[in-house]
Amino acid sequence: MVTSVTSFGKNGVSDWLIQRVTAVIIGVYFVGLMGWLMANSGFDYATWKGFMGSLPMQIANTLMMFSVAAHTWIGLWGVTTDYLTSLQLGGSATGIRLLVQAVIILLTLVYLLWGLVMIWGGA
Amino acid sequence: MKVSIYRYNPELDNEPYMKEYDIDTQGKDLMVLDVLALVKEQDPSMGYRRSCREGVCGSDGMNINGKNGLACITPLSEVAPGVLEGRKPLILRPLPGLPVIRDLVVDMTMFYNQYEKVQPFLQNNTPAPAIERLQSPEDRAKLDGLYECILCACCSTSCPSFWWNPEKFLGPAALLQSYRFLADSRDQATEDRLGNLDDPFSLFRCHGIMNCVSVCPKGLNPTRAIGHIRSMLLERAV
Questions:
Q1: Which of residues 24-53 of A touch B (CB under 8 A)?
Q2: Is A87's Cβ below 8 Å from some Cβ in B?
Q3: CA distances (Å), origin B90, targets A51, B22, B38, B54
């Protein structure tokens, strides 16, 4: 049994499940958006803004933002714990991995909050 | 034919190197192990492991022209096109990812440590019957494709997840054995076994790239076994 405090969920099962569920949400969102773009070719800014400002799209965009944030963290956490280890980096591995993970968390949170402000800020 | 072999003796060499040998196979489709025996006649200092020479003991796992396999049951004709005809060299390296003791001999401690963690033995606390614990033919059939593993380490040492985290990720061989006991109707330690596998590393580092399946000399499918364990973990958690 390996313990990890930096993974996303409470254990490997939850991380695995969250990554798959978020992937489905991202996939459905992408297909839906492509469908709208194909059905509304040549749309203008007002149409786009009306579409994105509608309540269903605000909810979909919010779901998408959270899904991308969670999916990104779980995926990149896996990458950092694969490639930034003492096997590759020696004694400084833990410090470097923590630093990179901190930067990823910070960027993800900034993107998430920024996205939420755009979706719900009413601009 | 040309044979290129990874050589490293930590007592003599500063770093590993590849040494070339000219071997006369008389055009025969020899097993790689037979070629190694011919090399050994030329150069007795070259070290490798072997025992049963028929794919049962798992001693002579090595990297043969880039793919892990057992030297004793890998004929030259199956190594790569042109090797048997002598157009391409036979290239032998130790199993990747494990520390090299000498030449083609690796230190399997990390591999065996992971095997030990899955408690590869039957656990049943009920009083033992007079003769044996019976199993229906259907339950016995569930162990097919699992019990045949010979622990040659070809699978685990072809797995990048095992290369990167050999102390945290159990690797395909250990996980196959874990499922061998999870699937056994006579075993009662299912909850404990699953409880030791639900962290982010032990099992979930498997990303399903199936290198293990493509190299297993016994034709086993660790990825499928890992999938079954994952399903059991999901059922237990959801």
A1: none
A2: yes
A3: 63, 10, 13, 20
